[in-house]
Amino acid sequence: MKAFAIFLIVLCLLALGGSVYLLTASNLGASSVRCDVFWLDHDIELRNHLLSQLESGTFTGICFQPEDDLLSSSEKYQVCLWTVRVDNHTMLPARAVEFQVVPFNQFDILQFDLDSVLSDTPVEHIIPAGTSAEIRIGMIVLARDQQTALGRTDNRNATITWYLDGFPFPGSNGKNGKLVLTP
After folding, report:
1. pTM score, two decimals?
2. Are 176 and 58 in contact (CB under 8 A)?
3. pLDDT for 113-145, tens place per residue?
4. Most distant CA atoms of the chain, gap in Å
5. Which of 18, 80, 96, 103 could form a disulfide with 139 if both were Cys (CB 3.0 to 4.6 A apart)?
6. How far apart are CA 124 and CA 145, in angstroms?
7. Between the CA of residue 92 and those of 85, 98, 157, what are the distances in Å?
8. Residue 47's pLDDT band (boundaries 50, 70, 90)?
């Protein structure tokens, strides 16, 4: 009986150690693939989806500053659309992968997930264990003229977070979740 109790204690310690290792070694790799920059009035479909969601209150992105005439005068806004490749090297599925781009004050207006905007419903990105996926992140940027437009498309910092049963893992990419988005 004593030997069986010792065996169970060792088994529990091994299971606990394995669980701790699994959670601490869980890491995603992310890299910026490309950035497409275009004027908002050149993509009527995206503009209409954004306008519809903002008017109905169903927009799921981040609004950095209120713009009353955001989409009525879309010729002064640019869209920066980053494509990010996320590699899941863990044994766990990465659920609800999120990106938070660090905004430029007075220039960035909205951040959104392109798939969520175009489908009119929030999309939960799930990356199965051992696979990769590309996620598209959009940013509406105020560009009063061509000169300021060119200056707002430089490198951006972003933070990646993914969840496992509601528990966040910001330590992705081996850099505390930090990623540089390049134009």
Report:
1. 0.76
2. no
3. 988 888 888 888 888 888 988 988 898 888 765
4. 81
5. 80
6. 36
7. 18, 16, 26
8. confident
